Amino acid sequence: MDFSTADLTRAFLVTAGAGLATVIGGLLVLFSRKSNARLLAFGLAFASGAMVYVSLTEIFTKSVDSFSMAYGDEDIGFA
């Protein structure tokens, strides 16, 4: 599989951005003077929404494809 330099650069930048966001978020929590329940609730809601999105768009699609390959293209179990 050949990868172009542009693809590798884009992948590196996205990965570096995700890592940098984690570091910035950790520093914000580390240097905050007092706990903020509202900010914690917002952060947990955002994280749970991101996980639901990933589950429904990535994992579910791959599972449907694998199921179809194993058992044929019949719509077994789908309304």
Helix and strand layout, with pairings?
Layout: H1 5-30, H2 37-71
Summarize the structure in words:
The protein has 79 residues and is mainly α. Helix content is 77%, strand content 0%. The chain has two helices and no strands. The radius of gyration is 20 Å and the shape is flat.
Main beta sheet, described? none
Alpha-beta classification = mainly alpha
Average pLDDT for all residues? 84
Low-pLDDT ranges: none
The helix-strand sequence is HH
Number of helices: 2
Query: What would you call the shape?
Result: flat
Report the span from N to C terminus: 38 Å
Q: Which band does the percent of strand residues land in?
A: under 5%
Give the number of DSSP strands.
0
Whole-number radius of gyration?
20 Å
Helix content: over 70%
Oligomer: single chain
